[in-house]
Amino acid sequence: MNILEMRFGLLAFACLCSGMVISSCAVEKEYQANEDEKMYLEAWLHTHHPDAKKTGMGIYLLNEEITGTGEDVTMPCYVMVTYTVRDLEGNITSSSDAESAKQTGDYDQTYYYGPRVWTFGEGSITKGLEDLLTGMKVGGEREALIPGWFQTYNRYETEEEYMKEVTDQSAQIYKVRVDEITEDIYEWQTDRIEEYCAEHSITLPEADPEGFYYIQETAGEGEPEDMHKDTTVYINYTGMRLDGQVFDTTDEKTAKDHHIFSSDKTYGPMEVTMSADSTEIKLDDNSITSGFGKTLWEMRPMEKGTGIFYSTYGYGTSGSGSLIPGYAPLIFKIELVPDPDPDEEDTEEGEE
Questions:
Q1: What average pLDDT score do residues 225-244 get?
Q2: Top-level class of domain 186-342
Q3: Calpha distance 292→248 (Å, rounded)
C-alpha cells in the first residue's frame, strides 16, 4: 500500500469513526482549512500511537518523556537542542545528530553536527516547537507530532484559529533533547571562545564590547593605519569553526586535510582591496564578513594574525548552510604576503 492509499484509508477510518460515510466527508460538510488533515492525523495516531498525549495548543507527545534534571526551559532564553525530524512514514528529513545522518547516508564530516541554538520566546520559533519545549528541563528529551498548522511563527488564542491558517507544511515528528540553556547568548559565545583558547594555550586580549579579538602572531611592518586606505594587498587565510573544522581556505593542503578541497577553486594568495572603511574591504571584488574585515583592519603589511569573533561579526543567527550553525563564533587566520606576480604588474606598466 502506498502513502496515498494509506492516507485515504486512514481518512476513511476517521470519517467512519465520527459516524459519517465517505461521501458525506466529501460533499455534505464544508470543511474549514486543515480539518480533513486533522482527522487524518487523529486516525494515524489511533493506529500508530494510541497512547499519545495532547499537550500545548495541540501537539502530541508520542513516547514516554525523559525528564531532565537541569534548569527549567523558561521564556525568554536561548535553548541548545539536538534534534531529529521525521515525516509520518518514518523518513528522516532533518537532523543535527551525526548518528542519524549516518543512518540515512547523508553524513558529511565537514558539516556541523551538535546542539543548535533556538530562541525560546518572542515568536522566534514556530508555535509547535514552542509548545514542545514548554515544561522541559536541561537533559530532557521529548518526541512529538507537530501538525502543519502549528508550524507557523504567528500566534493565536485558540487551536481553531491556527487551523484556519494554511501553512503548506506537512505534519512532522520532532525528537528533541535539551542540552543547555542561557539567557545571554553573547556570554555563552564568550565561554565557548575562552574554552577554545584555553585548550590551545592562546592568551586572549581584551575583546571589544561586541566580542571581537585580534591576536598578533607575527608582527608586520609600519602601522595598521598604513592599511586603512584604498590599496591592494595579498593574503592567505583559513576560516574555521571552534571545533577545528575548516570551512574556507586559500591553502590547498589545508583544504584536502579538512575534506573541503574543490578542483574548481584556485588555491594561493588572494587579492584584497582595502578601504578607509573596514566594511568596504573586498576579497577578489567580493564582500566579506565584518569579522574578516575587522581582522584585516588590525593588521600591518606582512603581518600574520588571528581574528576570533562572535556570530554578530560572522553569519549571525542563521549561520551559513550545513557548515556554520547560527550563533557560531568563528576564527580567521590571516597572513599578508608579497604580491605573487610582481613581474606581471611591471610588464603591464611597461607596455603602457
A1: 89
A2: alpha beta
A3: 12
Other Cβ atoms closer than 10 A to 130: 21
The stretches of the chain forming alpha helices (DSSP H) are 3-17, 22-23, 35-48, 98-104, 127-133, 159-163, 185-199, 252-257, 290-298, 342-351
Q: Do 53-182 and 186-342 have matching folds?
A: yes
Domain ranges in the chain are 53-182, 186-342
3-state class (DSSP) for residue 60: strand
Question: Contact 148/38 with Cβ under 8 angstroms?
Answer: no
- Chain centre to alpha carbon of residue 291: 18
> pLDDT digit string (tens) for 1-51?
544 455 545 544 444 444 444 444 443 344 467 888 999 999 999 999 999
Q: Are 286 and 272 in contact (CB under 8 A)?
A: no
Within 10 A of 16 (CB to CB), how many other CB atoms are there? 13
Residue 172, classed as helix, strand or coil, is strand
Q: Residue type at 101?
A: A
Mean pLDDT confidence for 105-118: 95
Which distant-in-sequence residues (6+ apart) come within 8 Å of 74 by Cβ? 120
Evaluate whether 37 touches 171 at the Cβ level (below 8 Å).
yes
Domain boundaries 53-182, corresponding CATH code? 3.10.50.40
Name the DSSP class of 314: T
Do 224 and 303 meet the contact criterion of CB atoms below 8 Å apart?
no
pLDDT digits (tens, 9 = 90+) for 286-299: 889 999 999 999 99
3-class DSSP state of 45: helix
**302 neighbors 334 (Cβ within 8 angstroms):** no
pTM (2 d.p.)? 0.84
Q: Residue type at 297?
A: W
Provide the 10 A C-beta neighbour count for residue 5: 9
| CA dist., res. 136 & res. 68, Å (int) | 7
Q: Coil, strand, or helix at residue 149?
A: helix
**Maximum alpha-carbon separation in the chain:** 92
What span, in angstroms and rounded, lies between the C-alpha atoms of 250 and 269? 7
pLDDT at 146: 98
CA separation for the pair 67, 246 (Å, rounded): 36
